[in-house]
Specification:
There is one protein chain. α2 packs parallel to α7 (180-195). The chain has helices at 5-14, 26-35, 41-52, 76-80, 122-125, 130-136, 180-195, 212-217, 223-227, and strands at 19-24, 37-39, 69-72, 89-94, 105-108, 145-149, 154-156, 161-166, 201-203. It is of the alpha+beta class. It is 33% helix and 17% strand.
Length: 229
C-alpha cells in the first residue's frame, strides 16, 4: 500500500528526523552538483554510456534498485563511528524534499535491501502503511532508509541541499602525493559553482573513537574508488 509523501514527512519529523543524508563518491558528488540533482545508478550508467558509447549493464537481482535513489535518516558515519561504505562525501538534505510532488513516490525500507532475496516478503522489505510506519519506524536504525522511486532516476537538489561534509582520510595519492581531502574539496567547490550551489562544505569532525582513519588506511574503504575523479 502506498504511503503519501506528506504522511512520511510528518511521521519522520515526529520521530526526530530533521534531515536526510546521502553518501557517495567524490566523482558522483561532482556529477550530482553539476546537474543539480541526485541520480540513480541506472541514470549515471546511461550518462556514462552516452560519453563512452558503451551499453549499460543491468542487475539480475530479483529486486532492482538501479533506478531508485536512497537516503539515510541519520549520519551513519557519525553514528557507527566508521567510514560510510557508499562514499566519503555526505549530502545533508532538508527533510522538506520528501513531501514535494516532483519526487514521484517515496517508500521507506523496513530492512536492509542488501539482505533481501526471493523469499523476503514485501511487508518485510517495506513499511506498507502509515500505521506501520508510525508504529515501527525507529530513528537511529540503519535499515530504515528513505527511497525515492518512480522519479526517472533524478532528484532535484536546489533549495534542499543544506551542506556537504567531506571525510579527511589524512592520506595522499601514491602518484604526485596529493592530499585526498584537498583534492576532493577543490573538485566539489568547482562543481558547486557550475551547478549554482552556495552551501557550506565542511571537513568532517569525527567523534572520539571513530575508526574511519583505520578504515581508510587499512583498505576497508577503497581510496582510489571513492576519492578519484
Amino acid at each position: 500500500m502506498e504511503i503519501l509523501p506528506k504522511r512520511i514527512y510528518e511521521t519522520l519529523k515526529d520521530k526526530g528526523v530533521s534531515s536526510i543524508w546521502h553518501a557517495d563518491s567524490v566523482e558522483n558528488t561532482c556529477l550530482f552538483l553539476k546537474h543539480r540533482c541526485l541520480m540513480s545508478r541506472d541514470y549515471i550508467e546511461k550518462l556514462d554510456s552516452q560519453r563512452t558509447m558503451l551499453k549499460p549493464s543491468h542487475s539480475s537481482n530479483s529486486y532492482s534498485d538501479r533506478n531508485d535513489i536512497f537516503a539515510d535518516s541519520l549520519d551513519i558515519h557519525k553514528s557507527a563511528n566508521k567510514a560510510h561504505s557508499h562514499g566519503p562525501v555526505l549530502f545533508e538534505l532538508d527533510i522538506e524534499i520528501i513531501k514535494n510532488t516532483f519526487t514521484g513516490k517515496v517508500w521507506v525500507t523496513k530492512s536492509n535491501p542488501m539482505e533481501w532475496d526471493n523469499s523476503t516478503h514485501h511487508e518485510n522489505r517495506w513499511f506498507v502503511s502509515a500505521n506501520d510506519l508510525e508504529s515501527n519506524f525507529s530513528y537511529g536504525s540503519f535499515d530504515h532508509m528513505v527511497v525515492f522511486r518512480h522519479c526517472a532516476g533524478k532528484l532535484p537538489l536546489l533549495s534542499y541541499l543544506n551542506r556537504v561534509v567531506i571525510d579527511d582520510p589524512k592520506l595522499q595519492t601514491d602518484q604526485h602525493q596529493v592530499d585526498y581531502f584537498s583534492m576532493a574539496y577543490g573538485a566539489i567547490k568547482l562543481s558547486m559553482r557550475e551547478g549554482g550551489f552556495d552551501v557550506p562544505v565542511e571537513r568532517r569532525a569525527c567523534n572520539k573513537g571513530c575508526d574511519c582513519l583505520n578504515n581508510y588506511k587499512g583498505g576497508v574503504v577503497r581510496l582510489d574508488g571513492m576519492f578519484n575523479l
